[in-house]
Task: structure prediction
Amino acid sequence: MSDRPSTLATAVVLAVILAGAWGLRTAYLSHAQAKPGFAWADPDSYTRQARSLVAEDGRWRWSWDVVHYEWNYRTWVLPPGYQVALSWFARDRAAFPGNAARFNILLSTLLCALRFWVATRIHSRRAGLVAAAIGAVWLPQVSGAPFFFQEQLYLPLLTLAFALAIEAWLRESRGPLFALAGLVFGLTALTRAMPFYFVPIAAAAFILGSSNRPMGWRRALSFVAGFVVVVLPYVVWVSMAHGQLILIDNHGPIEADRFAATRTATTPGVVDAVRLLVTEAVSAPAAFAAAKWDMLRGMFQVQGGRWLQYYGDAPSARSAELWKWTAHAGIDLLFVVTTVLAPLGIALARRTREAVFLALWPPLLVVLSVLASYAGARYRSGLEPHLIVLAAAVLAGGWRRPSKVGLGLALCGCLGMAALVLPQVPRSLAARAQYAVAPWDGTAAGATTTATGAAGLNILPRAGSVTFSIALVDGSGTDPVRAVVWVNRQRAADVSIGPSPQTVTAASARPGFAYVEIEPVTPQGQPPPRYSVTLPR
Result:
């Protein structure tokens, strides 16, 4: 493809990418629903809250319960955006939440198109197609339809907000487009509050990045006005209803409150959150720094192995191997490449001002998340569209010529990101998918599952060893069956599976899950045995 593909060629390729993105997500949802024991994943009860907004007669009604989150004997307040959006689908009680899962697919596909828009505007059409293609096969997004998290709506809104802000700047808008961008940032903040804290940074960027300073002030004020129109009424409303200042949500200090030496009588407010953080840092600075360093590494977790261990159930060893390399390609490879290349994209993108604006967001998200003790793949998802877009500018070629200082800083950024993510790759590559077992939780005491023939399981070791019991299912009067047990690809035990449970214990020194494979040895022509595996209580 040429560096400047025609409008028609671009439209055709983009349509193919978006159709592929839709198809992959739809196919994965069908695959997930066909698995035994399928259940919608909704750990934060968003679907229940959405249902509470719809009365029995189908009329919409407001309730503060929709934003309340009970945890650690506190009632916390969450943003309302995703629950309100889901309530539209909850009106059809029979179809919900399956109809909302289709909405998740639509949003995820739309996100690919929005990445195209942003990458095109900061660099080129080719970069836009690269960004859309990466997003189309980004496995956490492909497999996300059965999950009800606020990120389903938050990420498309966030990317749309940045797209509008960049578009307004490139068009040298006097104000209206900036106001629209601010409005969408406001809607995004009502879905997840983090953009609230980006508004001052964005306003300053519009002022300092405009050659005409009075025009810059006009743009910044228009942007802030659009944001305030959406957010301020809700902030006043929710604060009055709960008797304290709440900037959309108040669950930022949820972890600090959990470990506080003295807890406030009520749920911590804005001042309490700052006090808890300062107290933690001052009372034990070394422990505070070490904990935040771990959180920083957690924000850039290479998660392909973890995804495999939780979601990679397969019917056979061969399909488990296929899932393994699909996860490493669709998660680990893409994440490592985009994360390492993103700083270079700031220097090489054709429109430096807009690329820098885009790059202002990830550091803020990381700093606020780490300070609040949030880490992991879900909490860093808000910076992934930005990483993809900036990396796409590098992968697309046709760069501008950067200054030596700019290029040097970008390369240092690349090295820093590589130092964060590359040491995690071997651990992720060691993970494997379960196969030929009924759904279960290999971390829960007393958990049990069944298998027929050879099977692979992920079990969380305790005190450096993995322990489980194994027995034939309905095996009364059945001759014992010999089986070989492998742990982390090493032969660990030879057992005789009979009607009575037999305990197996094997060492597992490496961190994280142990991968246990059980291979029954049966005479030719004899059907494979059906047996249970149970963890100790």
About this structure: The chain has a mean pLDDT of 92. The longest helix spans residues 317-348. The two ends are 59 Å apart (CA to CA). The beta strands are 68-71, 74-77, 435-437, 448-459, 465-472, 481-487, 490-497, 502-507, 514-521, 530-534.
